[in-house]
Design goal:
Largest sheet of chain B: none
Strand content of chain A: under 5%
Number of strands of chain A: 3
Oligomer: heterodimer
Shape of chain B: globular
Number of helices of chain B: 14
Structural class of chain A: mainly alpha
Structural class of chain B: mainly alpha
Radius of gyration of chain B: 20 Å
Number of strands of chain B: 1
Distance between the termini of chain A: 9 Å
Number of helices of chain A: 13
Strand order of the largest sheet of chain A: 2-3
Helix content of chain A: 55-70%
Radius of gyration of chain A: 21 Å
Largest sheet of chain A: 2 strands, antiparallel
Strand content of chain B: under 5%
Order of helices and strands of chain A: EEEHHHHHHHHHHHHH
Chain lengths: ~350, ~350
């Protein structure tokens, strides 16, 4: 029974400087790998395609010919309503929340050097659900449900952190502690869902699973403001986190100040997850899978912050497209799709790692 | 690189060979039976209106007034169901921990409860299944498929580890939960009955449920009792087990089958209740040592005790309303799991 805490990226034999640099003037050289640029372009194209599909598909969809007009803000009649009140905000929120979750997951996984060190595993969703549920039951209408979700999420993460005794480092302990905390959260949530009247219970269940229905421009503003505030800071610590993945001693020697960078990264990651939860409820598995997919696209080391954010956005928009257009079930919360698809992907990932003898 | 090992449980009152002394065992058995009797008494005495022990005796003797009789008798079904479910879960947990040699094996953590729930919900939504017998029949295949799947996923690659199985169980549970939520959210009438059942509760059910699941539980229990010696041999490793004339593959298959029957019975009867199957075997090992024949007996005694006491706590903490037993076991069991995590040794 062996457990390792190395990140799942195939370790490079030697630490070479990346080949390509984008050089700006004499002092700035931004590392750019070709694989990363290709991945970035590919993801962007896919995201655009998914976005266009979101706006144009279905009974209420806009006519593709009218899209440019709508984007410039002079859509008419039905299109105006659909674009401004229904799908526009929903799409913007989906991209923002997905990006926030992907980025948050990438930061967490980089800091914990552990593919499972993601908000999903460390109790964020369960805590957020329980917090939201308690708010809905105890203080209906006085405390916003989103605030309850935030408090619950942070409390659950703190509980997992404390109860492992080793912080977020050890995957085995993390998983088990996370399951324990999640079980308590789920028990609370289920009890409240039972105790409320049926209609309220349905609404709460949708929120607890993570939902993008009936989002407004103000939700979009919230999530994008947080993203914009956090982005420059993550850019600053990205390089240090990359070095930090070599282990604390080496990065100390390289002057990367790993402790400072890690602390900041965790704070940013929690802020991002919290913002995502407050806007859409806890959407499962995006934070866990997006960084993994980003890693596999480029086969490089490092935290892949930008790519993870982009992947997260794409995943959530795609899942939301399913939620809106699949005739299977009527208007399910998007979180149920991400839970099913993300869970299946996680299973596949685990089996692959285990075949290679990792974890 | 680090290895995770869990300390072999050593019982008090066990000799160096790990076999318990007969006198000590007898004493422990008496203590366990007394504890169960106390739990049974508490289960019919306490609730939103408590009755005294004397009143319960009057009811049993038939000399109590009609009101008190009605109150006490209304607690019979949940008490009986508590005994059955607690026994099933605890014995299933002991079997699973023995078969997989994994101290964290448990029907809830390994996805068996989720499998039973998912197929029950599907049958209720699309095939109009209702009533305890129907539910039971649908819970079985789901539980079995989930159990096998988790073992297949968890044993991919080289060797199984404690965490792998649990992780595989968690992944499968997540996917099944997504399915369950999808069905219940899109069918309000299913959602209504589901949201009570999913928490795990002993109240609000009658003896019909008990009679429907009893045959399955009985078969599972008999199978379990027959597996004791095989499990003891298996604990020494496959090669040794073969040398002792035991058949490890048969023991594993039988153990998984029995555990599935028992978990499905418990889940169909009272909903998916976690942690009873995890906690009881650990307590039992600490008390009476590692002989599975003894472990199975004590699990069967302590499981009902734990579940009934949890139910009594749930009935009395929030009077006049009730906390369902599933909430109480989660809040007793999860901290126990967290403490167990802290004691895992040899981890970085």
């Amino acid at each position: 029974m062996t457990l390792t805490t190395e990140p799942t990226a195939p370790a490079r034999e030697s630490v070479k400087a990346p080949r390509g640099y984008l050089v700006v003037g004499r002092a700035v050289a931004v590392p750019m790998r070709r694989a990363s640029v290709l991945a970035f372009a590919g993801l962007l194209v896919l995201l655009l395609a998914a976005a266009v599909a979101t706006l144009t598909w279905g009974r209420l969809g806009l006519d593709p010919a009218d899209l440019p007009a709508a984007l410039l803000g002079d859509a008419q009649g039905k299109d105006r309503f659909v674009f401004n009140r229904l799908r526009g905000p929903r799409l913007t929120v989906a991209i923002g929340v997905g990006a926030a979750l992907g980025l948050s997951g990438a930061l967490f996984q980089s800091v914990t050097r552990n593919p499972l060190g993601s908000p999903d595993v460390i109790g964020l969703s369960a805590g957020a659900g329980a917090g939201a549920a308690i708010c809905a039951l105890m203080f209906p209408g006085t405390i916003p449900v989103a605030l309850g979700a935030l408090i619950g999420a942070v409390a659950a993460m703190a509980l997992v952190y404390v109860s492992t005794g080793t912080g977020f480092r050890n995957p085995a302990r993390l998983v088990i502690a996370g399951i324990g905390v999640a079980a308590m959260g789920a028990a609370l949530t289920q009890y409240v869902v039972y105790a409320l009247e049926r209609d309220k219970a349905s609404v709460l269940t949708a929120y607890v699973n993570g939902s993008l229905t009936a989002r407004s421009w103000s939700d979009a503003t919230t999530i994008w403001l947080v993203l914009l505030a956090v982005a420059p800071l993550t850019a600053l610590i990205s390089r240090r986190l990359d070095i930090g993945e070599m282990g604390d001693d080496i990065s100390e020697g390289l002057g990367a100040e790993p402790k400072k960078a890690k602390t900041l990264a965790v704070i940013l990651a929690i802020a991002l997850s919290a913002a995502a939860v407050s806007v859409s409820g806890p959407i499962a598995f995006i934070a866990l899978t997006a960084p993994q997919i980003a890693r596999r696209l480029t086969r490089g080391s490092g935290p892949h912050l930008l790519l993870s954010a982009l992947t997260g956005g794409l995943l959530l928009v795609a899942a939301d497209l399913c939620a809106q257009q699949l005739p299977l079930f009527d208007d399910l919360p998007v979180g149920i799709y991400t839970m099913a698809i993300g869970g299946a992907y996680l299973g596949h990932l685990l089996v692959r790692e285990w075949r290679r003898g990792v974890l | 690189m680090a290895t995770t090992t869990v300390a072999p449980p050593s019982g008090t009152g066990t000799s160096r060979s790990g076999a318990a002394r007969p006198a000590f065992l007898l004493l422990m058995t008496v203590a366990a039976v007394v504890a169960l009797a106390v739990a049974l008494g508490a289960s019919v005495m306490f609730g939103s209106r408590s009755t005294s022990f004397g009143e319960v005796l009057d009811v049993l003797g038939g000399s109590a007034d009609a009101n008190v009789t009605a109150i006490v008798e209304s607690r019979y079904p949940r008490t009986v169901l508590g005994v059955l479910a607690g026994l099933c879960l605890a014995v299933a947990g002991t079997l699973m921990q023995g078969v997989s040699r994994n101290p964290l094996a448990e029907p809830g953590l390994l996805g068996i409860n989720a499998g039973a729930s998912a197929s029950t919900v599907a049958a209720t939504a699309w095939l109009g299944a209702s009533g305890a017998t129907d539910t039971m029949l649908w819970a079985l295949p789901g539980a079995l498929i989930a159990g096998v799947l988790v073992h297949v996923i968890g044993s991919a690659g080289t060797g199984t580890s404690v965490v792998r199985l649990v992780l595989a169980g968690a992944v499968l549970t997540a996917v099944l939960m997504a399915f369950i939520q999808a069905v219940t959210l899109s069918k309000p009438q299913v959602f209504d009955s589901y949201r009570y059942w999913v928490v795990g509760a002993l109240g609000g059910r009658d003896f019909d449920v008990f009679w429907s699941v009893l045959p399955f539980a009985a078969v599972g229990l008999l199978l379990a009792l027959a597996l004791g010696p095989g499990l003891n041999a298996l604990a020494l490793g496959d090669a040794t087990a073969v040398a002792l004339g035991s058949n490890p593959a048969r023991t594993r298959g039988g153990g998984l089958l029995a555990a599935t029957l028992l978990s499905a019975a418990a889940t169909a009867a009272v909903g998916p209740i976690a942690f009873v199957g995890l906690a009881v075997p650990h307590v039992v090992r600490a008390l009476v040592g590692v002989d599975f024949r003894v472990q199975l007996l004590f699990s069967a005694l302590l499981g009902p005790t734990l579940l009934l006491l949890a139910d009594v706590i749930g009935r009395t903490v929030m009077r006049p309303s009730e906390l369902m037993v599933g909430v109480v076991t989660a809040f007793i069991g999860a901290p126990a799991l967290l403490i167990a995590v802290r004691r895992m040794r040899g981890t970085t």
